[in-house]
Protein: B30.2/SPRY domain-containing protein
Amino acid sequence: MLRAIYAASVRTPYPIPAACGLYYFEVKIISKGRDGYMGIGLTAHPHFKMNRLPGWDKQSYGYHGDDGNSFCSSGNGQPYGPTFTTGDIIGCGVNLVDNTCFYTKNGHHLGIAFRDLPDAFSLLAYSNPWASPLGWQLCPSRRESVCAALNSAILESMSYSWRPPLEVCIAHACELLRLMSSSSLGACAFVSVEDVLTQQQHH
Structure:
């Protein structure tokens, strides 16, 4: 008697922003299911088969939990990392500068899984790069440019125009002081953003 094995995929309708230099998302495994057959990955194919694991079909890439293999547009996997199961958190990072993809398991970097990636689709970006396990990997000399690229991509995906960080900071400070002033919170009722900036310059 044959038993049918059913598979299903979850895919975001939002692609990785084109202006994003470095993109990272994480998936927490709530349940491995009966046999632990699961994969986390990417696809650049607009008509990806949703009843297949990522990596098996053309223009798809996946890291599979049952055997730890990586799959690149083929049903033949390559040894890559450890297996993963219920409770694990798997991260996937895409470097659009050198077109590579890497994974993490519970915050530990597993190395590059795929090279020469085409445009790919995935899940979500961190608005604050330092809040992700990826932050410690950024070269200090490139942190500002990477953060700027990430934030610019996030704003673009939300249809917001880019603004210089200092301009955004001053706008936030002005709004905060306006609210505090309208609430008559002691000395704050008489403070202006120019006063705050002057004090910062003297320190």
Notes: Strands lie at 22-28, 39-43, 60-64, 69-72, 78-79, 89-95, 100-105, 108-114.
